[in-house]
## 1
Amino acid sequence: MNEAELMIYLLTRKNGNSIIGATEKELLNGLVLTDRNARYKLIQLLQELNTNLAILGLNVKYNSANGRWFIAFRDNVADIIEKKTFAMLSSTLAATLFTILLLSISTGGPVQKSEILEMRNRKRIDDHLRELRDLGYIIVKKSTVSLTPKIFYYINTDDIIKEIQNIDQNQAVKKLEPQKKSANKNDKISGKRKE
């Protein structure tokens, strides 16, 4: 097996229905890269593989939630797949999963069930949590819920965080706009003009 074949094998390993890929250590061991430049060589090999896979609509990605590299569809293809993935979930189930994701991002870890209930404005979410757990997206422990790395194969959290920041910035700008208008009214009343 050559380097490319071995890397593809390691990066496409599955656990059940989910691709788990390989950690940096697994890749280094599999490719027998042991010298002090091993990490640099690995990154070069991953970049070369990524370039070659681009022709097929694939690329090499890193799942920061579990520290694994894997092969995925390129973003434009991935958007379609992600939409289909969430289209398979009912709207209420997808909303619960998204709520858990947002709360996990904001707290940096497991989420209290009570927080999910409050944010979703629901009396019960046990059925949703059970379904999401059975699908492998979450782990439920007594009163806490945490995401599994599986969700990060389908969602780019960096994009979500950027969107949330854009929303926050847009709201901040809108809050400032009425103050600007009132300042302009005061200028007109006093007869002063801003230059």
## 2
Amino acid sequence: MSAHDATPLSVILPVLSEQDNLEPLHAGLSDALEPMGRGYEVIYVDAGSTDGSWEGLKKIAARDRRVRLIRLRKNFGQTSALAAGFAHSLHHILITLDADLQNDPGDIPRQLLAEHAAGRRDHRKKPYTLLAFQLWASRYHPA
């Protein structure tokens, strides 16, 4: 066991019209995370669902205090949904998962044991001219 074993987790899931997957998904997350014995939160980000996903998420949140919900007013894409989840997460270890059951929540404990990490630098020091160029480029020349 490492010193990180008790560090709480934030699991962030973008949701777009996944009403039928939400209950099995949440059951799988609970089955995977509860035996680990560490704190966690599950952040569902509804990215403009049109099928009743939001109502299903509210039911899940009503019975599980570890669930937090974010609702975007429309679908801004998966990246924006993840960014919203990151911005509202309470913990430093972030796990992302799609809500379409394409990935098995049961893999989360094994992934944490592998101690792989990805991230970005904080407090970047860039010249204002570069920041201005990046802003201009992202606004007028989107990828």
## 3
Amino acid sequence: MLPVDRLQNKAATGPGNIVVLMGAKTGRDGIGGVSVLASATFDDESEQRRPSVQVGDPFMEKLLIEACLELYDDRRVVGIQDLGGAGLTCALTETAAAAGTGMKVELDLVPLREPSMAPHEILASESQERMLLIVTPDQLEAVLKTAARWGVLATAIGEVTPPGPEGLPGRLTITWRGHTVVDVPPGSLADDGPVYARPMREPADLILIQADRAETLPRPSTPDALRETVLRMIASPNLCDKTWVTEQYDRFVLGNTVLAQPEDAGVIRIDERTGLGVALSVDGNGRYARLDPYAGAKLALAEAYRNVAVTGAKPLAVTNCLNFGSPEDPAVMWQFAEAVRGLADGCVELGIPVTGGNVSFYNQTGAAAIHPTPVVGVLGVIDDVAQRVPMGFPKPANPEGDIIFLLGETRLELSGSEWAWVEHEHLGGVPRGSTWPASGRSPSCSPRPRGSATSARRTTSPTAVSRRCWWRPACGGASAPGSRCPRSSRPARCRSSSSSASRVAGRWCRCRAATRRRSPRSARRAACRGPRWA
């Protein structure tokens, strides 16, 4: 969080203002990093692409941050933008397009680590620790002196030009050794990119996978067997102790860390005077999304939202990292579309906006893609970090004893679970349903009053707030969710289907009775889906 008066604009306003490149020199590391590493499969040629990986310099990053903060304090900057994916190409076009202006840039002025770099390499390089600044001519000398004081290289590489006539945007003109190599409207690259309408189809094996439910797997039946199961589960990578990672650095620098791993959400104090703080949680489950991308995305959002809410903070914003295989595969594109739709629907129901995020495609080796993995981060605000609600039991324990509450209803829901994978290497069925507060308001948890006789871990459980059935089983609900339905209750279309998928699914009372937007073909293909309860 940042005071409003310190927010910086990226727009390249003011014709005649100077364009300054500040930070590390530009090299060949990172050239095509976004297009190569995020848009190509992991194959035998991946090793040859290693130069595409950006090389970071943490010490230079720290110096660059301090130099930027001093420039903000002195109000030396009109606009500023970091050089991320696509390097100078992205920064120049985005800053100019944001203001509707143009730019004249000389690539010969860009400091290079390798003098033999071609113009397209200079523009596409994703070398780290670089910022693009827009400054007025009278502030240029002060900006260069500030950068030099911090040991950061700063170079004027161009200037802002006026918009075109009759309200048209300006043009981005880039020269190299006296030749014009770029002459385009900045918005053509920043805002007017092509929109793909890729073919999509549900994965052919999805209905069979969903029919193979984990609830039918054998479970431990004796105390000793249960003990061994628990030990194996807590030793799994997803559940094991992770302090060997988090304790390799000091999490409590400056004394503002209030809650840290293994808490549900991290909480930090941002205002020492008022105790104002923020809470953040990042969650995702690729197995859930493999079984149902729509529900998997909503479940990731629900978990991150709950983790923030139970600390006592009010969830305010969402970010995401969407990881999928090749979008050229119609099945992967369908998974991506369903996950985005699930995340969008969940955010609308919770009344919380998505403020940013990124998409990573082509995460696969050959034809084998990763599980669709939408990772969702939720940020919330807490008025006083002293009132946060920790995850553990209070220490020392209350002399009169603490009361432990379990909110919500426990059901036989094991599909996609850690237990199914650790014990049986099984992935199948339908992930547990997700429900949402009926009002759509953002719940948060309040700590117990100080000095009360009892304490409880109070959570706002969506299950406890509302229960809604998205999908109605063919037996009309006569059987418990997830159980077999009487054979006679299955509709004729399931019993008479000639496909093996429908025959398998029919055993589980999987005929859909709710409406969803699908093409007629996909609706027929999904005619035997199971009871999805929320």
## 4
Amino acid sequence: MTNTKNRTITLLLISLLVFYTVGCSQNTNKIPKAEKGVIDLSAWDFEKDGTAELNGQWEFYWNKIIKPEEFQYAGKTDLHYFELPSQWNGIKNAELKNLPPLGKATYRIKVKLPTNKSKLVRTLCLKFQDIHSSYRVWLNGRLYLEKGRFSETSEKCIPALGREMLSFEDSSATLEIVINAVNFIDTNEAGIDEEVLLGTEHSIMQESQLKNFFYLVSFGILLIMGLYHFLLFIIRRKEREYLFFSIICLLLAVQTICEGDKYIFYILPSLTVSLYLKIWLASISVVAVLLQFYRVIFPYEMNKKIVNFFTAVFIFQILFIFILPIEYYMPYVYPTFYFALIGVGYLFFGLFTALLRRRRHSVLVFAGMLLPLLAGINDLLYGLAIIYTGYYGCVGFILLIFSQSYFLSLRYNESYIEVENLSRELERTNRSLDNKVEERTIELKAVNTELSRTIAVKNKFFSIIAHDMKNLFQSMLGYSDLIIMKAEEDEQLEINEDALVIKDTTKKAYNLMENLLEWSLSETGSIQIKKELLNLKAIVSENVELLDAYIRAKHVCLNIGVDEKLQIAADRRMLNTILRNLLSNAIKYSYSDSAVTVRAEESNKGTIIYVSDEGLGIEKEKLDTIFLAESVQSTPGTNKEKGTGLGLLLVKEFVQRHDGTISVSSEIGKGTTFEVVLPVS
């Protein structure tokens, strides 16, 4: 895609260059040159050979305004010859050296025309490009043209610039051209400094129209591009390159209509030469804007202080031009041109440095600036009268604008792609953030739900525990009062029985508090599991012994079916809590004279411990919820014993801490069996 665009731009630029070269080119046939005021075009065919340039030695009369009929009275000493085109203040002639730019002069040349075989009146055309700065033209003794208000005094003379085409009919073999020229304004250029052209009206008009077409097309393109980039700057004020580029386009547009046939005089017919010169000279400040533009593009290659210095000088120049009369500035035109050449040189140096450092797009920028720089240097040297090639700024301007517009488009496209990527990244981040927020919200809701459940469970536990603790302490207080009363009556036997009841009640309260403490530690994660190799039967026997009084009080037969050699890897404290609670639970719900059995076996799953009773049993619909904290409830035993349900929660918690499982099976009226599987460690 990028290669296709590059090829398209390259072909477009080459096509424009070819068209401009064709449009700006002159006839390449060898044209005779004038010698001592005479040019022989008798062998020249204006229809086939095209337009002829009347270059060579013209008669020149300095400080004389001579009409055709007055030449017979002109002195021989006043006659001089010198090459045209050339400014009279630039004549390198021993007799006429150091002529001042301000003054007057007369030019004359005799043209030997092709033989008029038909003897009919033929129409020819003369084109005068620039004669500084007011003049009149005589053909064969007849006044045909006056440019500006011609006068031999500066007070009455009104200068005028711009191309003039003069069509005339003639059947003679010789054409005498006399030009009276005066200059009272331009201290740099004086006289005829561009070619005088002779040809058919059709060929000269066609050539002029073609040039005007290209100049006007250039003006239109530059104007539109300038306004377009200024609007871009209005939209994107931080992108200063758009502002500088728009100013460049507008200044180059002004230069375009100020050069060539000076079409600005057709656009503004009432424009004075003074104001034209001010506008044209001010447009040279485009060099400073170019430096500012490329300093934005290549900030490390274009020194800020140097660029600002050039800018300050050109700003001062513009103020000087527009505040004071143009006559005050004209002596400084050439220094301004030289200063602009230095600025162009520094610009070229900066771009070449960027190219060597391989800055992004430096190849495109350098290539796009090379021909425009050469065209700009040509125009400056032509303006300095160092070379006589003509103005080719229109070629360079269009090449510059297209290449740099393409470069700015690339920058804008890259910025747009970067913005798109950042937008997509931001969108992904936002989506990710939304997902994270949603996940966190769900997590918070889950935590909140769990917290609410935990609070509800704790509240329920505290309610049950408070109720059971109240009953236990009331029982202990009651039996304590009985002991005191019976001690006063000396009933020792009954005192012993009441003391046993208090002891049993205290033990129940202790077990309740122990379960509550361990559950609290488990909930806060404060209990660390420490496994060791334990003899399972010994652990079972210890817990049976702890519950011996409860077993005898309920008249329950407790059977232990555990191999004496069976070893199990478990946390001693947690295993005691598991067995104590399961045994206590089995005894609580057993009938008198029934059996509670503890047995164990080894399997590929690990060690399986069974605790069975022959008591009340559990309803089928409650089997799935007895280990859930929110479903805990106090169910009375066979002797109306109270309970909290906290013991089974601890059992499940500690079994899971061993990576084990617990399950229950039961049948109403026949008993319940708890199965604990502890994997081999």
